[in-house]
Amino acid sequence: MDEITAEELKVRLAHSSKIQIVDVREPEEFEICNLGGELIPLADIPKQSGRIRRDVPVVVVCHHGFRSAQAINYLTQRLGFENLLNLKGGIHAWATQVDPSMATY
């Protein structure tokens, strides 16, 4: 599984690369802190996979990187996605390494 660090994502977003962010946490978690993008809770991935692009890199985000890894495994093995990146350490890594003003939980 391909991963991207919080610092690498910051650089890519700063250079306005075409990237889709898919957050697989629950809505309550998304309200606490988020990077924007599409909120598709992990349990909804099978029926909402049509919202995930195949033509640009897609960074999949969760709290620490475990649920996003599960989502990526499903999407690659079952649906043939080849453009997915797991945010290593999840939104927590973003908050601690890139944006210390972001709420953590």
Quickly describe the structure.
With 105 residues, the chain is an alpha/beta fold.
Features:
Oxidized Rhodanese, domain 1, alpha/beta, 105 residues, five-stranded parallel beta sheet
What does this structure look like?
There is one protein chain. A five-stranded parallel β-sheet has the order 1-5-4-2-3. The chain has helices at residues 6-14, 27-32, 45-48, 66-79, 90-97; strands at residues 3-4, 20-23, 38-39, 58-61, 84-87. With 105 residues, it is of the alpha/beta class. It has one domain: Oxidized Rhodanese, domain 1 (3-Layer(aba) Sandwich).
What fold name stands as the CATH topology? Oxidized Rhodanese, domain 1
Q: Give the count of structural domains.
A: 1
Which overall shape is indicated by the principal axes computed on the Cα atoms? Answer: globular
User: For the record, what CATH class applies?
Assistant: Alpha Beta
Tell me which CATH architecture applies here: 3-Layer(aba) Sandwich
- Proportion of residues in helical segments: 25-40%
Give the low-confidence spans. Answer: none
Strand content: 15-25%
CATH superfamily: Rhodanese-like domain
C-alpha termini separation? 26 Å
Task: Give the strand tally.
Answer: 5
Protein name: Rhodanese domain protein
Organism: Pontibacter korlensis
Domain Rhodanese: 15-103
Pfam family, one: Rhodanese
